[in-house]
């Protein structure tokens, strides 16, 4: 008995490439497919979570949205890894910077988290969610070749967007050298580890959690384009 289609993905394993790029926003998934992929085909649209498969420079690639937060990306990445034969997932998203300038690109070497997402695994300790080294090192080298600076280090993956003590929260993570906050990478890395697959999170700093500044429309477009080209060329 097959595990597909699922309640969340109405497709077959043949519909997906072995590598999936995963933005949070379904409309961003559509944008990426239309602007970067050749012969892009819509393969999933359950709950408006658009997934496409096409080719980039002759290489099969899929792009599918994750929605917001660890519960959402947790469902989609679990199913892609375990039911649809996907081997690599690269999250491409935005993050709140903890001291870095807006439009900086960050590759999450490790993902600290405030979530209890890993609790269902019943591990006899605290697991450290980390990126796949081959994907990470290839991305860093690809960025160097393009002359794009990518910061590599820890991020924090949070379950909460609006916090009671925002600045206190930020300062404590800053002291630990954490570069930025987003809401998905820890679940992605945990699911990849459990499935024996590969994952990486790369984000653009869209706003500063310290200074309250945000990317202009031009900065957002330029940094997003750089991030996408690096991600695709890594593949």
What's the structural blueprint in terms of helices and strands?
Elements: E1 19-22, H1 26-36, E2 38-44, E3 51-56, E4 59-64, H2 70-83, E5 88-97, E6 105-113, H3 133-146, E7 150-157, H4 166-175, E8 180-182, H5 185-195, E9 198-208, H6 217-234
Parallel strand pairs: 1-4, 1-5, 5-9, 6-7, 7-8
Antiparallel strand pairs: 2-3, 3-4, 5-8, 6-9
Account of the 3D structure:
The chain has 235 residues and is an alpha/beta fold. It has helices at 26-36, 70-83, 133-146, 166-175, 185-195, 217-234; strands spanning 19-22, 38-44, 51-56, 59-64, 88-97, 105-113, 150-157, 180-182, 198-208. The protein has a five-stranded mixed beta barrel, surrounded by four helices. Helix 2 (70-83) runs parallel beside helix 5 and helix 3 (133-146) packs across helix 6 (217-234). The longest helix has 18 residues, at 217-234.
């Amino acid at each position: 008995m097959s595990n597909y289609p699922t309640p969340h993905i109405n497709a077959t394993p043949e519909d997906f490439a072995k590598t999936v790029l995963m933005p949070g926003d379904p409309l961003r998934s559509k944008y990426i497919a239309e602007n970067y992929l050749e012969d892009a085909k819509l393969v999933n649209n359950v709950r408006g979570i658009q997934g496409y498969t096409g080719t980039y420079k002759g290489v099969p690639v899929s792009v599918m949205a994750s929605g917001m937060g660890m519960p959402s990306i947790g469902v989609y990445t679990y199913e892609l890894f375990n039911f649809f034969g996907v081997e690599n997932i690269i999250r491409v998203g935005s993050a709140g910077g903890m001291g870095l300038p807006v439009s900086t690109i960050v590759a999450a070497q490790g993902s600290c988290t405030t979530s209890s997402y890993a609790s269902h695994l019943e591990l006899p300790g605290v697991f450290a969610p980390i990126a796949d080294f081959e994907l990470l090192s290839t991305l860093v080298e690809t960025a160097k070749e393009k002359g794009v600076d990518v910061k590599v280090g820890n991020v924090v993956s949070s379950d909460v967007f609006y916090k009671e003590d925002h600045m206190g929260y930020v300062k404590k993570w800053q002291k630990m050298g954490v570069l930025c906050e987003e809401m998905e990478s820890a679940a992605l890395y945990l699911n990849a580890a459990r499935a024996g697959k590969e994952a990486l999170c790369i984000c653009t700093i869209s706003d500063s959690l310290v200074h309250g500044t945000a990317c202009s429309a031009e900065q957002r477009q330029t940094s997003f384009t750089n991030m996408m080209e690096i991600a695709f060329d890594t593949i």
